[in-house]
Design brief:
- There is one protein chain.
- By secondary structure, this protein is of the alpha/beta class.
- It has a single domain (5-238), classed as Alpha-Beta Barrel (TIM Barrel).
- Helices cover 37% and strands 15% of the residues.
- The protein has helices at 16-29, 48-54, 81-85, 97-102, 107-119, 132-136, 140-151, 178-192, 210-214, 231-238, and strands spanning 5-9, 38-42, 61-64, 91-94, 123-128, 161-164, 198-202, 221-224.
- Strands 1-2-3-4-5-6-7-8 form an eight-stranded parallel barrel, surrounded by five helices.
- Strand 6, helix 8 (178-192) and strand 7 (198-202) form a beta-alpha-beta unit.
- The chain is globular, with a radius of gyration of 17 Å.
- The protein binds 1,3-dihydroxyacetonephosphate (13P).
- 1,3-dihydroxyacetonephosphate binds at residues 9, 96, 165, 170-171, 202-205, 223-227.
């Protein structure tokens, strides 16, 4: 049984003050949400401690947006798994397309981050996905397969989430057709070779398309950017198929 993971990635949004306001509105909206799904927020590092306190006693779980592979050391601007564990962080997003693009993160580095997360009992959410040009050139499957094989080398699939995020669908309002997202997620499951692997879809997920996406056989959750910044819209997404 694959329990869906509904995760909000706040990216570089939300101060501590706004995070507190968000939680005051959001938590009551998931009071009646069925327990058949995980609900996760990935705030910026600066708001992790605030959120960790605000969600105590609630079912909301906490993710970081990245994690380093060393426990400590001279790695300016990085955050170690030990620092996250102090705040009851449970998941760590790694390999998101934004650090891949802006900071040239490689599959090798992403793999080291994912391994470090698992070593410390954090669940890595490893993001993969093709660009517009790669899709147009017919290279989408080859690119994703390389990201999966290199990024997940040595990773235990039962303590892992893979997020399929086609880059052309991120922040653009262009959602990947649910059938196509489903097909790619099925391929990923086959390449990893673990039938219970949790695979999310990400890219312009919103209240109006969540139910269709979550009805897809191979899709076990979503990684949500823009629509996770408003309590009502993220609550609608977390409450998929439960009205
Ligand atoms: P949007 O939902 O804003 O398209 O962002 C998706 C994403 O990158 C989540 O990690």
């Amino acid at each position: 049984m694959r329990k869906p993971v509904i995760a909000g990635n706040w990216k570089m949004h939300m101060t501590c003050a706004r995070s507190r306001d968000f939680m005051a509105s959001f938590l009551p909206l998931i009071n009646g949400t069925p327990n058949d799904r995980h609900i996760v927020i990935a705030p910026p590092f600066t708001a992790i401690s605030t959120i960790s306190e605000a969600i105590q006693g609630s079912r909301l779980e906490l993710s970081s947006q990245n994690v380093h592979w060393e426990d400590e050391g001279a790695f300016t601007a990085e955050v170690s798994p030990l620092m996250l564990l102090e705040h009851q962080v449970k998941y760590a997003i790694v390999g998101h397309s934004e650090p891949r693009k802006y900071f040239s993160e490689s599959d090798e580095q992403i793999n080291k981050r994912a391994r470090s997360a698992q070593l410390h009992d954090l669940i890595p959410i490893v993001c993969v996905g093709e660009t517009d040009e790669q899709r147009e050139r017919g290279e989408a499957e080859r690119v994703i397969r390389r990201q999966v094989e290199q990024g997940l080398e040595g990773i235990e699939p039962s303590r892992l989430v893979v997020a399929y995020e086609p880059i052309w669908a991120i922040g653009t309002g262009k959602t990947c057709e649910a059938e196509e997202a489903n097909r790619i997620c099925g391929l990923i499951r086959g390449w990893v070779g673990f039938k219970d692997l949790i695979i999310q879809y990400g890219g312009s997920v919103k209240p109006s398309n969540i139910d269709e996406i979550m009805n897809m056989e191979e899709i076990d959750g979503v990684l949500v950017g823009g629509a996770s910044l408003e309590p009502e819209s993220f609550a609608r997404i977390a409450n998929f198929n439960s009205f």
